[in-house]
Amino acid sequence: MKIKVLELEEKKARILFEGEGNTYMNALADELLKDPAVDVAQYKQPFKFSDPELIVTTKGDRAPLDAVQDAAKRLSSYAAGLLRELAGINAE
Fold first, then answer.
1. CATH number of 2-91
2. What is the pTM of this model?
3. Considering the chain, what is the average pLDDT of its residues?
4. Which of 6, 35, 38, 47 suits 65 as a labelling partner, its CA being 20 to 30 A distant?
5. Domain spans, the chain
6. Who wins on pLDDT, 72 or 1?
7. DSSP 19-58
8. In this protein, which residues make up the domain named DNA-directed RNA polymerase RBP11-like dimerisation (predicted)?
9. How far is CA 73 from CA 9, 66, 90, in A?
């Protein structure tokens, strides 16, 4: 996955995700909103085949890129757990 930080401020980030679609962006935005220090987490994709742009704003001392990184780690952990569960089912 290739990303480009389009704008970075103390409490706001705009990030372009090259080649990603609605599935990952929906999951990431949803996971970001579970963080109480995240004020806004939304993405826009003006055209079906354009790259989505994520907008994140935070409150308190939380840096927006840290929030995105932590949300991505949680998503990865959920996927790893699912793979372990499926492997257990296949082994039976």
1. 3.30.1360.10
2. 0.88
3. 94
4. 47
5. 2-91
6. 72
7. T--HHHHHHHHHHHTTSTTEEEEEEE-SSTTSPPEEEEEE
8. 13-81
9. 22, 11, 26
Rounded Cα distance, 46 and 49, in Å: 9
Instruction: Please check the confidence at residue 90 and state whether its pLDDT lies above 80.
Output: no
What value, to the nearest 5°, has the Cα angle with vertex 37 and ends 34 and 38?
Answer: 65
What gap in Å lies between CA 52 and CA 91, rounded to an integer? 38
Strand partners, 90: none
* Nearby residues of 63 by Cβ (< 8 Å), 6 or more positions away: 10
Q: Which of 39, 42, 37 is nearest to 61 (CA)?
A: 37
